[in-house]
Amino acid sequence: MDKITGKNSNRKFKLGMHSYTLHLSGYGESWGFQSEGKTYAFEKAGSLIDLMDLAKKEHIEVLHITLVDLDNDTSPEHLAMVKKEAEKRGLDLELNISFDAPSDPRVNSTIEESLEIAHAMGAKLVKYSTDIRHSRPFTHACMSPEAMEQMSRVVMEFQKNIPTIEKYGLKIAIENHCDLFADEVVWMVKKLNHPQIGACCDTINSLILGEGIAECVKKMAPYCYCVHFCDNKIFADPDGTHSLGCAIGDGDVDVVEIMKILRAEAPEELDTIDLEIELPLSGYSLEEGRQKELEGMRKSIKFMREVLKIGSDA
Fold first, then answer.
1. How far is CA 197 from CA 173, 186, 208, 223, 250, in A?
2. Alpha helices, DSSP H only, in 161-285?
3. Domain covering 12-305: architecture
4. What's the predicted TM-score (pTM) here?
5. Cβ atoms < 10 Å from Cβ of 105
Protein backbone atom coordinates (compact mmCIF):
# COMPACT_ATOMS: atom_id res chain seq x y z
CA MET A 1 0.00 0.00 0.00
CA ASP A 2 1.40 3.38 -1.01
CA LYS A 3 2.15 5.87 1.69
CA ILE A 4 -0.42 8.66 1.85
CA THR A 5 1.10 11.80 0.36
CA GLY A 6 0.02 15.19 -0.90
CA LYS A 7 -1.65 18.30 0.44
CA ASN A 8 -2.71 17.98 4.10
CA SER A 9 -1.44 14.38 4.13
CA ASN A 10 -0.94 14.54 7.91
CA ARG A 11 -4.39 15.93 8.65
CA LYS A 12 -5.93 14.24 11.69
CA PHE A 13 -9.47 12.90 11.99
CA LYS A 14 -11.33 11.25 14.82
CA LEU A 15 -12.33 7.65 14.19
CA GLY A 16 -16.09 7.31 14.25
CA MET A 17 -18.49 4.47 13.57
CA HIS A 18 -22.01 4.38 12.19
CA SER A 19 -24.05 1.99 14.35
CA TYR A 20 -25.38 0.47 11.11
CA THR A 21 -22.03 -1.34 10.93
CA LEU A 22 -23.64 -3.76 13.40
CA HIS A 23 -27.09 -3.79 11.80
CA LEU A 24 -27.41 -7.59 12.00
CA SER A 25 -27.16 -7.10 15.76
CA GLY A 26 -30.14 -4.73 15.61
CA TYR A 27 -28.22 -1.44 15.73
CA GLY A 28 -28.66 1.45 13.29
CA GLU A 29 -31.61 0.33 11.25
CA SER A 30 -32.91 -2.80 9.52
CA TRP A 31 -32.66 -1.83 5.89
CA GLY A 32 -34.38 -3.42 2.94
CA PHE A 33 -37.01 -5.55 4.67
CA GLN A 34 -40.40 -4.96 3.08
CA SER A 35 -43.13 -7.44 2.23
CA GLU A 36 -46.83 -6.84 1.66
CA GLY A 37 -46.68 -3.45 3.35
CA LYS A 38 -44.98 -4.79 6.48
CA THR A 39 -41.57 -3.90 7.84
CA TYR A 40 -39.18 -6.20 9.66
CA ALA A 41 -36.30 -5.56 12.04
CA PHE A 42 -33.47 -7.57 13.52
CA GLU A 43 -33.79 -8.14 17.24
CA LYS A 44 -31.31 -6.06 19.19
CA ALA A 45 -28.38 -7.99 20.63
CA GLY A 46 -27.46 -5.28 23.11
CA SER A 47 -28.22 -1.83 24.47
CA LEU A 48 -26.79 1.54 23.49
CA ILE A 49 -24.64 1.37 26.63
CA ASP A 50 -23.24 -1.96 25.40
CA LEU A 51 -22.45 -0.28 22.08
CA MET A 52 -20.70 2.57 23.88
CA ASP A 53 -18.61 0.12 25.86
CA LEU A 54 -17.66 -1.71 22.66
CA ALA A 55 -16.73 1.57 20.97
CA LYS A 56 -14.51 2.55 23.87
CA LYS A 57 -12.78 -0.84 23.83
CA GLU A 58 -12.18 -0.68 20.07
CA HIS A 59 -10.69 2.87 19.98
CA ILE A 60 -13.83 4.43 18.45
CA GLU A 61 -14.06 8.11 19.41
CA VAL A 62 -17.41 9.08 17.86
CA LEU A 63 -20.65 7.07 17.69
CA HIS A 64 -23.01 7.90 14.83
CA ILE A 65 -26.38 6.58 16.02
CA THR A 66 -30.05 6.47 15.04
CA LEU A 67 -33.33 6.66 16.91
CA VAL A 68 -33.35 2.85 16.84
CA ASP A 69 -30.27 2.90 19.07
CA LEU A 70 -32.19 5.21 21.42
CA ASP A 71 -35.04 2.67 21.42
CA ASN A 72 -37.08 5.62 20.14
CA ASP A 73 -37.14 6.85 23.74
CA THR A 74 -36.68 10.59 23.37
CA SER A 75 -37.80 11.52 26.86
CA PRO A 76 -35.64 14.19 28.53
CA GLU A 77 -34.59 11.69 31.22
CA HIS A 78 -33.39 9.10 28.73
CA LEU A 79 -31.54 11.58 26.54
CA ALA A 80 -29.83 13.10 29.58
CA MET A 81 -28.70 9.62 30.59
CA VAL A 82 -27.33 8.95 27.09
CA LYS A 83 -25.41 12.23 27.18
CA LYS A 84 -23.97 11.44 30.60
CA GLU A 85 -22.91 7.90 29.64
CA ALA A 86 -21.22 9.09 26.45
CA GLU A 87 -19.34 11.82 28.32
CA LYS A 88 -18.27 9.29 30.94
CA ARG A 89 -16.60 7.23 28.19
CA GLY A 90 -15.15 10.22 26.33
CA LEU A 91 -17.35 9.55 23.30
CA ASP A 92 -18.77 12.18 20.97
CA LEU A 93 -22.22 11.49 19.53
CA GLU A 94 -23.74 12.18 16.12
CA LEU A 95 -27.42 11.65 15.28
CA ASN A 96 -28.57 10.04 12.03
CA ILE A 97 -32.08 11.00 10.88
CA SER A 98 -34.33 10.10 7.95
CA PHE A 99 -37.47 11.90 6.81
CA ASP A 100 -39.20 8.96 5.12
CA ALA A 101 -37.03 5.85 5.26
CA PRO A 102 -38.24 3.25 2.75
CA SER A 103 -38.09 0.22 5.05
CA ASP A 104 -37.51 1.13 8.70
CA PRO A 105 -39.78 3.97 9.86
CA ARG A 106 -38.23 3.88 13.35
CA VAL A 107 -35.45 6.17 12.09
CA ASN A 108 -37.81 8.90 10.86
CA SER A 109 -38.15 12.34 12.41
CA THR A 110 -38.82 15.94 11.49
CA ILE A 111 -36.10 18.56 11.48
CA GLU A 112 -37.66 20.33 14.47
CA GLU A 113 -37.88 17.18 16.59
CA SER A 114 -34.43 15.91 15.65
CA LEU A 115 -32.70 19.16 16.59
CA GLU A 116 -34.22 19.00 20.06
CA ILE A 117 -33.23 15.34 20.44
CA ALA A 118 -29.68 16.00 19.27
CA HIS A 119 -29.23 18.91 21.67
CA ALA A 120 -30.63 16.97 24.63
CA MET A 121 -28.31 13.99 24.02
CA GLY A 122 -25.27 16.21 23.49
CA ALA A 123 -24.75 15.38 19.82
CA LYS A 124 -22.35 17.54 17.83
CA LEU A 125 -23.84 16.84 14.40
CA VAL A 126 -27.13 15.74 12.84
CA LYS A 127 -27.05 13.90 9.52
CA TYR A 128 -30.15 13.83 7.33
CA SER A 129 -31.34 11.41 4.67
CA THR A 130 -33.90 13.37 2.67
CA ASP A 131 -35.48 10.35 0.92
CA ILE A 132 -36.03 12.23 -2.34
CA ARG A 133 -37.84 10.09 -4.94
CA HIS A 134 -36.41 10.23 -8.47
CA SER A 135 -38.26 9.25 -11.60
CA ARG A 136 -36.82 6.48 -13.73
CA PRO A 137 -34.53 6.10 -15.58
CA PHE A 138 -32.14 7.22 -12.84
CA THR A 139 -29.28 7.88 -15.28
CA HIS A 140 -31.02 11.07 -16.46
CA ALA A 141 -32.90 12.01 -13.28
CA CYS A 142 -30.34 14.34 -11.69
CA MET A 143 -31.90 17.77 -11.08
CA SER A 144 -35.11 16.62 -12.72
CA PRO A 145 -38.24 18.76 -12.11
CA GLU A 146 -39.72 16.06 -9.87
CA ALA A 147 -36.59 15.91 -7.72
CA MET A 148 -36.11 19.67 -7.65
CA GLU A 149 -39.64 20.21 -6.34
CA GLN A 150 -38.96 17.88 -3.39
CA MET A 151 -35.50 19.31 -2.76
CA SER A 152 -36.86 22.85 -2.70
CA ARG A 153 -39.34 21.91 0.02
CA VAL A 154 -36.53 20.36 2.06
CA VAL A 155 -34.38 23.47 1.67
CA MET A 156 -37.22 25.65 2.91
CA GLU A 157 -37.76 23.37 5.93
CA PHE A 158 -34.10 23.71 6.87
CA GLN A 159 -34.29 27.47 6.40
CA LYS A 160 -37.16 27.66 8.90
CA ASN A 161 -35.02 25.82 11.46
CA ILE A 162 -31.80 27.81 11.11
CA PRO A 163 -32.47 29.81 14.32
CA THR A 164 -32.58 26.54 16.32
CA ILE A 165 -29.49 25.19 14.54
CA GLU A 166 -27.65 28.38 15.48
CA LYS A 167 -28.96 28.36 19.06
CA TYR A 168 -27.71 24.82 19.68
CA GLY A 169 -24.48 25.17 17.70
CA LEU A 170 -25.14 21.99 15.74
CA LYS A 171 -23.45 20.96 12.53
CA ILE A 172 -25.91 19.74 9.88
CA ALA A 173 -25.01 17.29 7.12
CA ILE A 174 -27.24 16.35 4.15
CA GLU A 175 -26.40 12.89 2.76
CA ASN A 176 -26.32 11.33 -0.70
CA HIS A 177 -28.33 8.50 0.84
CA CYS A 178 -29.09 6.36 -2.24
CA ASP A 179 -31.50 9.14 -3.22
CA LEU A 180 -29.47 12.24 -4.07
CA PHE A 181 -26.82 12.79 -6.72
CA ALA A 182 -23.69 14.64 -5.62
CA ASP A 183 -24.73 17.70 -7.65
CA GLU A 184 -28.10 17.73 -5.88
CA VAL A 185 -26.58 17.63 -2.40
CA VAL A 186 -24.19 20.44 -3.33
CA TRP A 187 -27.11 22.46 -4.76
CA MET A 188 -29.02 22.15 -1.48
CA VAL A 189 -26.00 23.12 0.63
CA LYS A 190 -25.30 26.12 -1.59
CA LYS A 191 -28.91 27.25 -1.45
CA LEU A 192 -28.89 27.07 2.34
CA ASN A 193 -25.59 28.97 2.38
CA HIS A 194 -24.98 28.66 6.10
CA PRO A 195 -21.67 27.89 7.85
CA GLN A 196 -23.28 25.21 10.04
CA ILE A 197 -24.85 23.31 7.14
CA GLY A 198 -22.82 20.99 4.93
CA ALA A 199 -22.93 17.60 3.25
CA CYS A 200 -22.50 13.99 4.30
CA CYS A 201 -20.74 11.92 1.66
CA ASP A 202 -21.32 8.18 1.77
CA THR A 203 -18.48 6.72 -0.28
CA ILE A 204 -20.55 3.88 -1.76
CA ASN A 205 -24.08 5.28 -2.15
CA SER A 206 -23.32 6.94 -5.48
CA LEU A 207 -23.38 3.52 -7.14
CA ILE A 208 -27.14 3.27 -6.53
CA LEU A 209 -27.72 6.17 -8.91
CA GLY A 210 -25.01 5.19 -11.38
CA GLU A 211 -22.42 7.78 -10.29
CA GLY A 212 -18.72 7.06 -10.12
CA ILE A 213 -17.36 6.87 -6.58
CA ALA A 214 -14.27 9.07 -7.01
CA GLU A 215 -16.20 11.65 -9.04
CA CYS A 216 -18.88 11.85 -6.34
CA VAL A 217 -16.34 12.28 -3.54
CA LYS A 218 -14.47 14.97 -5.47
CA LYS A 219 -17.68 16.96 -5.97
CA MET A 220 -18.86 16.63 -2.38
CA ALA A 221 -15.55 16.86 -0.49
CA PRO A 222 -15.40 20.69 -0.34
CA TYR A 223 -18.78 20.71 1.43
CA CYS A 224 -18.38 17.62 3.65
CA TYR A 225 -19.07 17.93 7.37
CA CYS A 226 -19.61 14.16 7.72
CA VAL A 227 -18.39 11.04 5.90
CA HIS A 228 -19.74 7.49 5.88
CA PHE A 229 -16.57 5.61 4.96
CA CYS A 230 -17.40 2.37 3.15
CA ASP A 231 -15.79 -0.26 0.96
CA ASN A 232 -17.54 -2.76 -1.29
CA LYS A 233 -16.68 -5.67 -3.54
CA ILE A 234 -18.09 -5.12 -7.02
CA PHE A 235 -18.53 -8.03 -9.40
CA ALA A 236 -20.73 -9.45 -12.14
CA ASP A 237 -22.17 -12.93 -12.57
CA PRO A 238 -25.02 -14.45 -14.61
CA ASP A 239 -27.52 -12.82 -12.21
CA GLY A 240 -26.20 -9.31 -12.85
CA THR A 241 -23.83 -6.78 -11.31
CA HIS A 242 -23.50 -6.74 -7.54
CA SER A 243 -22.03 -4.55 -4.83
CA LEU A 244 -21.38 -6.32 -1.53
CA GLY A 245 -20.19 -4.66 1.65
CA CYS A 246 -16.88 -5.75 3.14
CA ALA A 247 -14.23 -4.68 5.62
CA ILE A 248 -12.40 -1.46 4.76
CA GLY A 249 -9.45 -2.31 2.53
CA ASP A 250 -10.91 -5.60 1.27
CA GLY A 251 -13.02 -4.17 -1.55
CA ASP A 252 -12.80 -2.40 -4.89
CA VAL A 253 -12.97 1.17 -3.57
CA ASP A 254 -9.58 2.91 -3.61
CA VAL A 255 -9.92 3.98 0.02
CA VAL A 256 -6.39 5.40 0.10
CA GLU A 257 -7.21 7.74 -2.78
CA ILE A 258 -10.56 8.65 -1.20
CA MET A 259 -8.77 9.74 1.98
CA LYS A 260 -6.29 11.79 -0.06
CA ILE A 261 -9.21 13.68 -1.59
CA LEU A 262 -10.88 14.25 1.78
CA ARG A 263 -7.68 15.36 3.48
CA ALA A 264 -6.97 17.82 0.68
CA GLU A 265 -10.43 19.17 -0.08
CA ALA A 266 -12.77 18.82 2.91
CA PRO A 267 -13.34 21.90 5.10
CA GLU A 268 -12.14 22.05 8.69
CA GLU A 269 -15.68 21.24 9.85
CA LEU A 270 -15.00 17.64 8.84
CA ASP A 271 -13.22 16.33 11.92
CA THR A 272 -14.45 12.70 11.97
CA ILE A 273 -14.47 9.78 9.54
CA ASP A 274 -17.32 7.37 10.32
CA LEU A 275 -16.67 3.73 9.57
CA GLU A 276 -19.65 2.00 7.98
CA ILE A 277 -19.74 -1.56 6.67
CA GLU A 278 -22.64 -3.70 5.52
CA LEU A 279 -21.69 -7.36 5.38
CA PRO A 280 -24.09 -9.69 3.56
CA LEU A 281 -26.15 -12.19 5.52
CA SER A 282 -26.66 -14.58 2.60
CA GLY A 283 -25.09 -17.96 3.27
CA TYR A 284 -24.86 -17.47 7.03
CA SER A 285 -27.04 -17.95 10.03
CA LEU A 286 -27.87 -14.75 11.91
CA GLU A 287 -25.44 -15.74 14.67
CA GLU A 288 -22.65 -16.31 12.13
CA GLY A 289 -23.49 -13.03 10.41
CA ARG A 290 -23.24 -11.14 13.67
CA GLN A 291 -19.84 -12.65 14.39
CA LYS A 292 -18.60 -11.73 10.92
CA GLU A 293 -19.85 -8.18 11.45
CA LEU A 294 -17.68 -7.87 14.54
CA GLU A 295 -14.71 -9.35 12.72
CA GLY A 296 -15.24 -6.96 9.80
CA MET A 297 -15.56 -4.01 12.17
CA ARG A 298 -12.29 -4.87 13.92
CA LYS A 299 -10.46 -5.51 10.65
CA SER A 300 -11.71 -2.15 9.34
CA ILE A 301 -10.64 -0.29 12.47
CA LYS A 302 -7.15 -1.81 12.22
CA PHE A 303 -6.84 -0.81 8.55
CA MET A 304 -8.17 2.71 9.13
CA ARG A 305 -5.82 3.33 12.03
CA GLU A 306 -2.67 1.68 10.66
CA VAL A 307 -2.91 2.36 6.92
CA LEU A 308 -5.16 5.41 6.60
CA LYS A 309 -3.92 6.99 9.87
CA ILE A 310 -7.46 7.80 11.04
CA GLY A 311 -7.88 8.31 14.77
CA SER A 312 -6.58 10.97 17.12
CA ASP A 313 -3.86 8.63 18.40
CA ALA A 314 -3.24 6.77 15.12
1. 6, 11, 24, 9, 33
2. 162-168, 182-192, 213-220, 255-265
3. Alpha-Beta Barrel (3.20)
4. 0.95
5. 12
